[in-house]
Recover the amino acids of this structure.
């Protein structure tokens, strides 16, 4: 699973465009967006770089959120 911070995702319409960008590269991906926190959780078999590129091309540059350390 990937967790992305997407600063430009501010509303439901943005969230739909973010989801569609991810699904354009992996139609089987599971995407959970949260506009108030400007974040998305993505379960996908695509490479992280591919997902980030798709988001950037859609106008939503993103970065990988820091993952908490495993206990």
């Amino acid at each position: 699973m990937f967790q992305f911070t997407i600063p430009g995702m501010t509303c439901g319409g943005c969230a739909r465009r973010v989801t569609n960008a991810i699904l354009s590269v992996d139609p089987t991906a599971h995407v959970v967006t949260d506009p108030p926190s400007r974040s998305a959780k993505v379960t996908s078999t695509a490479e992280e770089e591919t997902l980030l590129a798709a988001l950037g091309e859609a106008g939503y540059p993103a970065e990988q959120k820091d993952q908490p350390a495993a206990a």
Summary: The chain has a mean pLDDT of 92. The first strand starts at residue 2 and ends at 5.
